[in-house]
What we know:
By secondary structure, the protein is of the alpha/beta class. The protein has a single domain (about 5-270), classed as TIM Barrel (Alpha-Beta Barrel). The chain has 9 helices and 12 strands. The protein has helices at about 30-40, 60-75, 90-95, 125-135, 150-160, 180-195, 210-220, 245-255, 265-270, and strands spanning about 5, 5-10, 45-50, 80, 105-110, 110-115, 120, 140-145, 165-170, 200-205, 225, 260. The strands form 3 sheets. An 8-stranded parallel β-barrel has the order 2-3-4-5-8-9-10-11, surrounded by 8 helices. Strands 1-12 form a two-stranded parallel sheet. A two-stranded antiparallel sheet has the order 6-7. Helix 6 (about 180-195) links the parallel strand 9 and strand 10 (about 200-205). Helix 1 runs parallel beside helix 2, helix 1 (about 30-40) packs parallel to helix 8 and helix 7 (about 210-220) runs parallel beside helix 8. The longest helix is centred in the N-terminal third of the chain and has 14 residues, at about 30-40. The radius of gyration is 17 Å and the shape is globular. The site of magnesium ion has 7 residues, from loops. Magnesium ion binds near residues 10, 47, 49, 83 and 85.
Amino acid sequence: MSRPCIITVAITGAVPKKEDNPAVPVTPSEQVESTHEAYEAGASLVHIHVRNEDQSPGSDPEKFRQVQEGVRKYCPGMIVQFSTGGRGRSLAERGAMLSLRPDMASLATGSVNFPTSIYENPPSFIDELASEMLKFDVKPEVEIFDVAMLYNAVSLVKRGLLAAPAHVQFVMGIPNALPARRQLLDFLISELEELLPGATWTAAGVGRHQFIVNQWCLELGGHCRTGLEDNIKFDRYRLAQSNAELVQKIVDIAGRHHRYPAAPDQARKILKLRNAA
Ligand code: MG
């Protein structure tokens, strides 16, 4: 029997620049267009960062609003997920757009080293961000960058700051954080199933690990994430032409693993989200 797979497209991220790959969308209109192409290819969830004029990571709630409005208009039912990630943004800025009530937002449940910086998420900040998400009925995607973060998520559920069933993402392949190892993913999934029964999960492979992690997720019953945020290349030899091309790459092999791309309304049911706005 074939099972649905929610494909997340992380269209922009904080790091890739137009100079690295001209397909990286940075203005709200480019972002909506790129999301629409990915939606047509089979993505049902979009993960959104906004950028400042100089392409640095942005926090402007107006830009988040514009992207959300465009996605709702041109990609009916698609799940909108805002990033609350760091990269030079202050703690206060990182949650400033939650009042726009996207369907979901990312929530990293601990601090970790990135290649050249510390991704800081102090305990009090995590609790605050989780409370804000509860207040605005925004479902967190718990971002697991290191093993302890899984147990911190369990603690949030126990303390009533994270509603069950949780949705988590294992992020693999960032230097200094979790490596992209199949045995590690197997372990994380077994811990998740034991400690947070009923939780849904996905995994992101960063850089050259993107597609192998997609294949592990298809095989193991998880959901998938792709996009230029994590990887600007289609393969070792050429740049990806678009976010849609990376989505298509998953769609093309899903059947081999008895999976098919979830439609947006189906994805909303799987994640127990409210109906589309
Ligand atoms: Mg992100």
